Amino acid sequence: MPWVAWNNAGMAVARDTGGSRNMRRTSLYGKVQGRQGMKSRMLLLAVLVLVSGAAMAQEIKVGVILPFSGIGAEFGQQTERGINLYMKLNADRMKPYTFRLIKRDEKDASGASAKVVVQELLTQDKVDILLGWIYSPNAIATAAQVTAGKVPAIITNAGTAHITTLSPNYARVSFSMWHAGYAMGEAAATQLKAKTAVVGYSDFPPGKDSLNAFRTAFEASGGKVIDEIPMGGPAAVPDMTPFFQRAKEKQPDVLFVFVPAGDHATAVTRTYAALGMKEAGIKLIGPGDITQDNKLQAMGNAAVGLTTMHHYNADLDNAENQRFVAAWKQDYGADSVPDFMAVGGYDGMAAVVHVAHAQQGKITVEGAMTALKGWTFDSPRGPISIDPETRDIVMNEYLSEVVMQGGRLVQKSTSRIDAVKDPCKVLKIGPCANIPK
């Protein structure tokens, strides 16, 4: 009569014994006999498959796109540290899932490197969600890939206003250039009592956005922009002297400047002081990029009096920020300071964890975007949410002045605007009017 045994591959095979002998064979899991042994083995295999599947379902693969080399490496480090700090301080919120960060270097603002690494993350690493983008040109260049890849993507920095209109899979937890630029335009006219302004800007999409935002609000509030000066691009720090000299000759009440944070911002402050523009009665203003927290102390007395509008600085007086800054200094050194990019990474990782929980670890792009629309979070910058209509952030903006306090430079908040939506989309200006659902 036939009997069942297990071959070397662990498969059941039927054999004819040629008689009625009661034969026994040894399986992978021990000695089994007849049909009872086969049932036991099949049950055990089924249990192993279920356990293995459950374990695999607990891991969320997060593709992280940041500059880890080149002029923007410091920005990438700030953002990465913010991501890591969220994971450390909120370990209980992450359970029962584990989050594997798969990091790729976007290198520069050309768009070319970003397209390569996004393709790798989508097709080779098969990530569940994307996180990052420091440079606007890179987020713009990869929008079609993000849409085609059907993976949710959370932007932690890139601030050109219309980016979120380029793909329905983008959500942004950082800012639009219009958040600070528009609010600063209003404040310059109504609070600083400026009548005239010159705008200097880095000549790439965020700079042009910042110019348009400031000019729109400043002139609507009764001011007049009397000159607009493009000041090189983000790839290298230009000599600011000819640009600032041109601005000085116009004798405006305020000089509004947008340049990328970092060495560009340091050059701005140095040139402003060297040309005696403060003494000439010209006030330097801009978004918080020009008073980046981790560069501020090195600016020295030249920075005193700088006035900015922004959503974050390390001196904000709220409990969540105090916890964040204290943990940062403990992990990265007493002299290390988080900036707005670090907070973008922190809040971006919070959004990733929220998406995972909302979908019980099974992330789909449709489910992720539904979960993010209207999401609220208590950030170090204050309360934030995602506008369900635009998938862009809603947050406070702080008017701050740099002062010397206790031998160190401090950004002192003088006023606050609550729950600011991206004005470019509210006003439906240019490409901001075309929002995919």
Keyphrases for this structure?
Rossmann fold; 9-stranded mixed beta sheet; 5-stranded parallel beta sheet; 18 strands; alpha/beta; 437 residues
**CATH top level class name of the largest domain:** Alpha Beta
Tell me the helix content.
Answer: 25-40%
The CATH homologous superfamily name of the largest domain equals Response regulator
Question: What general outline do the C-alpha atoms trace?
Answer: globular
Number of helices: 15
Overall average residue pLDDT: 90
Sheet with most strands: 9 strands, mixed
Query: Got a strand count?
Result: 18
Low-confidence stretches: 1-34, 49-57
- The SS-based structural class is alpha/beta
Strand content: 15-25%
Separation of the first and last Cα atoms: 67 Å
* Count of domains: 3
Rounded to an integer, what's the Rg over CA atoms? 28 Å
CATH topology of the largest domain: Rossmann fold
- What CATH architecture label of the largest domain applies? 3-Layer(aba) Sandwich
